């Protein structure tokens, strides 16, 4: 697969011409394919005759992300910037830093004003999605596959995109045009050199030295596209058994042999895979502008259709990873109790011997910032961890010496903050075993004693938490002060408070647009030429007026209360009337917002969700759906419902 292209833009064509660096001139000894996109017809042509027409513009691009059809025709998205993350097994890994969206037809079709506005909205959604998330690619390394999966491929000659795990091939929909052309039955064109699988998630690669041995430490988190979405608009399982916020995280350790003369770079290759995903049942949280949203769940397990969705999910996971070690971190009381109880009931009903279930109430066990008590969970899981082992591939032989036979699937409410703390603790424990097997550490030594490396380890896992949290919740992760330093601090708790408030704002008032962007990018919503069938109706005037009235009255009340001298009001009666009037407006508008909360939420427009205002207005059968709401105060809700560290007053 080629690494750089010159994109020549003319009136009639886009032409991708491979480029190569002087250090890699050897690749130019064989003919290099060119790709031409005919702008009038949209047809792709491999090695088309060079046109005499001069280029109007030229770009250097590092990959083709794909094509997408909007109202004004087809658009092409190219990667125009990249940052090198590091190298794995001799292959460079990159993060895409900038993109460009190019209109394929040279002329813009006649669209109405409303269609033009909608077209611009689509473009903005795509640009925001590409800008706000992290995308990674490699021209040689199978980034969608674990080391264990790559070892199983052997010397397979198939193209990288053909071997890619479709769960993590994030631009699979955008690449349909090239894939279909390659697989065309009557007139195929092999465009494999231009099909670049891209993952969304997190990648870190750091070289280090432990006990005078060179090592490479890597972490790859692959976000699944099967039920991608934002925090409150994507919970639980869909009808196909796909889990929200499902992420496969692979910790990689590459080591040199001691005093090795081997020409293989880092021949000892270790990996340890974990997964996270929303609690595997039909449940959700309905945003309604309250700090803790309304919780609903389908707990009618006598209905086989309900139970079968969870069964399907676990069957899929067992097929991919083997037996499942299920770690449930939600609270055993309060707001989260029904979620934990439903999970336990599902596992009991399924009675699958390949499911090992542990419910560890993280907030209770680690209360008062005693986060070292995560060791209690490790002690419970140690027999299963030793049984599942890890991947060990010796590239000098080459032989897969050890296989990971099962996986730990961890969840909390969001599968972000608590989950990342536990996953990093499990990965730390396994890392000691791997370093001992590589003879980097002696049998009684632990990597914790190497301050330089352990700092790398903690910061990589904390960065992983932040990136995955931004993709799902819109903010950085909570509890990362513990992941980075091994200690919980009050400064970290205040940072968590700030992030939690920001999450509340984004999840209620901004996430509809983020969900639309995800659905558009993944092809869950497909736009037809000239199509205009989305819900563009605005909110009623009351809904538009109430929020400004609330904030203006509140600001005026605070200003008048604390800075009365700036008002130049001499009459005490008039001053009291102003305070009373502003306070009354604040109470009335706030009450209105509480009563009609769902109408103020920023809902997705492209795909109607079951949590839309129309759905909420319908009565829900009590026998089938359990709806629960915490009655505790804001700070306790923050701890139980929003994964905020509780801050309690001293009496």
What structural keywords apply?
21 strands; 651 residues; alpha+beta; 5-stranded antiparallel β-sheet; 13-stranded mixed β-sheet; disordered C terminus; 18 helices; 36% helix
Report the end-to-end length measured between terminal Cα atoms: 66 Å
What integer value in Å does the Rg equal? Answer: 27 Å
Q: What is the subunit organization of this protein?
A: single chain
Count of helix runs: 18
Number of strands: 21
Beta-strand residue percentage: 15-25%
Average pLDDT, rounded to a whole number, is 87
Helical content class: 25-40%
Structural class: alpha+beta
Biggest sheet layout: 13 strands, mixed
Backbone shape: globular
State the low-pLDDT regions, or none: 611-651
Can you walk through the features of this model?
The termini are far apart. The strands form three sheets. Strands 6, 7, 8, 9, 10, 11, 12, 13, 16, 17, 18, 19 and 20 form a 13-stranded mixed β-sheet that branches. It is globular, with a radius of gyration of 27 Å. Helices cover 36% and strands 22% of the residues. With 651 residues, the protein is an alpha+beta fold. Strand 6 and strand 7 form a beta hairpin.
Report a brief summary of the structure.
It is built from 18 helices and 21 strands. It has helices spanning 113-132, 147-153, 160-163, 176-182, 304-321, 337-350, 362-365, 374-388, 417-437, 451-473, 480-485, 490-509, 511-522, 541-562, 572-595, 597-600, 613-616, 634-640; strands at 4-9, 13-19, 35-38, 44-46, 57-61, 63-70, 73-88, 91-103, 135-137, 199-210, 213-223, 247-255, 268-276, 283-286, 294-298, 323-328, 355-359, 391-394, 399-402, 406-411, 625-628.
């Amino acid at each position: 697969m080629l690494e750089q292209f010159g994109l020549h833009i003319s009136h009639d064509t886009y032409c991708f011409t491979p480029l190569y660096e002087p250090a890699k001139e050897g690749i130019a000894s064989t003919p290099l394919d060119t790709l031409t996109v005919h702008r009038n017809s949209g047809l792709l042509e491999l090695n088309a005759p060079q046109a005499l027409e001069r280029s109007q513009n030229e770009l250097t691009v590092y990959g083709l992300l794909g094509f997408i059809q909007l109202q004004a025709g087809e658009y092409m998205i190219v990667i125009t910037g990249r940052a090198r993350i590091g190298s794995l097994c001799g292959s460079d890994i990159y993060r895409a830093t900038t993109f460009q969206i190019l209109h394929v037809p040279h002329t813009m079709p006649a669209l109405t004003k409303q269609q033009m506005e909608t077209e611009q909205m689509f473009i903005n959604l795509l640009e925001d999605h590409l800008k706000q998330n992290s995308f990674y690619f490699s021209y040689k390394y199978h980034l969608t596959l674990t080391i264990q999966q790559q070892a199983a491929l052997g010397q397979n000659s198939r193209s990288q995109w053909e071997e890619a795990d479709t769960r993590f091939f994030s631009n699979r929909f955008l690449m349909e045009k090239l894939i279909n052309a390659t697989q065309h039955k009557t007139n195929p064109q092999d465009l494999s050199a231009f099909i670049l699988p891209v993952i969304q998630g997190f990648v870190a690669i750091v070289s280090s030295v432990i006990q005078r041995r060179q090592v490479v430490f890597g972490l790859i988190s692959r976000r699944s596209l099967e039920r991608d979405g934002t925090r409150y608009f994507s919970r639980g399982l869909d009808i196909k058994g796909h889990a929200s916020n499902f992420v496969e995280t692979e910790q990689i350790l590459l080591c040199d042999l001691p005093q090795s003369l081997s020409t293989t770079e880092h021949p000892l290759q270790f990996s340890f895979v974990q997964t996270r995903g929303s609690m595997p049942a039909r449940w959700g949280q309905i945003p309604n502008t309250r700090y803790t949203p309304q919780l609903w769940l389908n707990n009618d397990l006598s209905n086989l259709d309900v139970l079968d969705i969870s069964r399907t999910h676990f069957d899929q996971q067992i097929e991919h990873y083997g037996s499942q070690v299920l770690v449930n971190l939600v609270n055993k009381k309060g707001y989260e109790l029904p979620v934990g109880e439903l999970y336990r009931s599902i596992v009991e009903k399924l009675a699958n011997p390949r499911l090992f279930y542990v419910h560890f109430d993280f907030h209770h066990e680690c209360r008062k910032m005693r986060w070292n008590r995560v060791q209690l969970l490790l002690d419970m899981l140690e027999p299963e961890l030793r049984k599942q082992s890890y991947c060990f591939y010796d590239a000098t032989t080459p032989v897969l010496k050890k296989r990971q036979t099962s996986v730990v699937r961890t969840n909390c409410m969001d599968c972000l903050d608590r989950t990342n703390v536990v996953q990093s603790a499990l990965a730390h424990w396994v890392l000691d075993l791997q370093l001992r097997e590589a003879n980097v550490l002696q049998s009684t030594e632990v990597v914790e004693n190497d301050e330089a490396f352990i700092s790398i380890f903690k910061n990589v896992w904390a960065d992983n938490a932040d990136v995955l949290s931004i993709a799902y919740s819109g903010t950085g992760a909570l509890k990362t002060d513990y992941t980075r330093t091994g200690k919980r601090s009050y400064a970290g708790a205040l940072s968590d408070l700030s992030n939690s408030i920001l999450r509340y704002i984004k999840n209620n008032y901004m996430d509809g647009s983020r969900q639309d962007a995800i659905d558009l990018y993944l092809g869950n919503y497909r736009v037809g030429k000239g199509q205009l069938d989305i819900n563009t109706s605005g909110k009623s005037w009351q809904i538009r007026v109430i929020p400004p009235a609330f904030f203006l009255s509140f600001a005026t009340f605070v200003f008048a209360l604390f800075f009365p001298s700036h008002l130049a009001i001499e009459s005490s009666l008039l001053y009291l009337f102003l305070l009373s009037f502003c306070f009354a407006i604040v109470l009335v508008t706030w009450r209105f917002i509480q009563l009609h909360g769902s109408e103020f939420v920023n809902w997705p427009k492209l795909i109607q969700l079951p949590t839309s205002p129309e759905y909420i207005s319908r009565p829900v059968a009590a026998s089938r759906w359990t709806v629960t709401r915490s009655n505790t105060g804001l700070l306790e809700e923050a701890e139980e419902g929003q994964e905020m560290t509780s801050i309690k007053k001293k009496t």
